[in-house]
Amino acid sequence: MSRIDYLERIPNNVDLAGNRRLQRALEEWQPKFLDWWIEMGPEGFQAADVYLRTAVGVDAQGWAHFDWVRMPEYRWGIFLAEPESQRLIPFGGHKGKPVWAEVPGEYRATLRRLIVTQGDTEPASVEQQRHLGRACPSLYDLRNLFQVNVEEGRHLWAMVYLLDAYFGRDGREESEALLQRRSGHADKPRILGAFNEPTPDWLSFFMFSFFTDRDGKYQLASLAESGFDPLSRTCRFMLTEEAHHMFVGETGVGRIVQRTCEVMREGKTDDVRGRGVIDLPTIQRYLNFHCSVSLDLFGSEISTNAANFYTNSLKGRFEETKRDDDRQLKTALYPVTTLDGERVVTRDEPALTSLNERLRDDYVADCARGVARWNQVIARAGIDFELTLPHRGFHRAIGAFAEVKVAPDGRLISEAEWDAHHREWLPTDEDRAYVASLMTPVTAPGAFAPWIASPARGINGQPADFTYVRFTP
Ligand code: BYC
User: Fold this and answer.
1) Most buried by CB count within 10 Å: which residue of 115, 122, 273, 368?
2) CA contacts within 13 A on the Cβ side of 202
3) Structure confidence by residue, pLDDT tens digits, 172-183
4) Ligand 1 center to residue 36 CA distance, Å?
């Protein structure tokens, strides 16, 4: 049987070559992953050469290595951030003790569930985005889509590494199951709601990358605080890649907003649908949708799961080590916005059970900064319009607000009022059809679809007309 050169095929810093058991597990899993990638990965572009960044190490040069790659030949590596020497558990019941190099028996099931939930999102997003290439607005954007896709693939590898290396047989079974569920499938859907929603057009993709990938940032940052050190180190490295995904989302929406504003100014009108760009109210409705489904990803406002994750030192807060409280939260309170009968109220709750809400607050503040930057684009064009984040109770399916109807401005409303107005707040079939009608592919080097502005600069310093994707004849 031919041996694999592990460092060449699977770049890693986990001494894969010296770990026979893990090699065997990954040797079995890798062909199944490739089958999944061919079946569910970017449709129609598996043979194209793409200008991609591949992580081949964890230092500054190592993770920013650019080259031409066919996606199925991308080297999905396994990287953990360098260990912090003598790292101590920063929070929870085990605070101050040395971090765990192995899974503590009593937390095995909980940790596995957290890792599987995280892992499940990665292939899900690739599945959601698999048809987008055919409607790309430029080669620059096409390349960015594929960069995001292969990195989500790598993040799946990262979670599979943890499952295979630390959870024995049931870990290997979970690794297989990650390749069997399918986004949006009636019988075997992905675990979390947002990952079963379609991503049918590029406005959806950019909104997803802005809002949903940002949930990834906050969840990964919380898991990076974990007392289980391999999980912490894996997540810390994943965060370096996640930043690019949010950049793609923020600049993508920003460029759409910019183009719309240009056309509004040129035509001295806000009625721009006939002019081939996406009107600002439609952008707002897409924003409302993607923001609300992403808010659901943080779980219920009050959660004993979250309290247990924290007390057991498995999942911390965002930037846990910068908090100067006791980092155990035994008596602390936290203000939570929730429902009290017919009213939206903010009241103090135990900080431990409020951890999902606290993370959601950190997330909302971060989203607001991005939206403010989009609004600067609108203001610079001299246009009187502001994009806004919807109230956290709007269009929710998880938590206290799932039971009621809330307007984007936070008013609790009746079913009748919802029925009368939701078309103003969420993308309608007409909106989606209009956006879909703009999605004709643009693949000439340096050219951009008329509904999106060109980016401020190229990837890795490349010129504006760079051929980021080369198609095979
Ligand atoms: N949809 O106490 P609750 C990313 C379930 S994104 C469906 O309210 P908990 C990425 C929950 O699982 C980051 N089900 O919440 C982005 C639980 O079920 P079980 C992904 C949901 O447990 C873009 C029950 O409801 N990473 O990386 O405190 C592209 C009661 O739960 C939802 C993680 O999520 C939902 N939205 O917190 C690619 C980190 N919300 O267990 C990648 C790991 C809740 O009773 N996961 N439920 O059957 C977690 O930390 C937690 O599982 C959650 C939920 C934060 C998701």
Assistant:
1) 115
2) 30
3) 999 999 999 999
4) 24
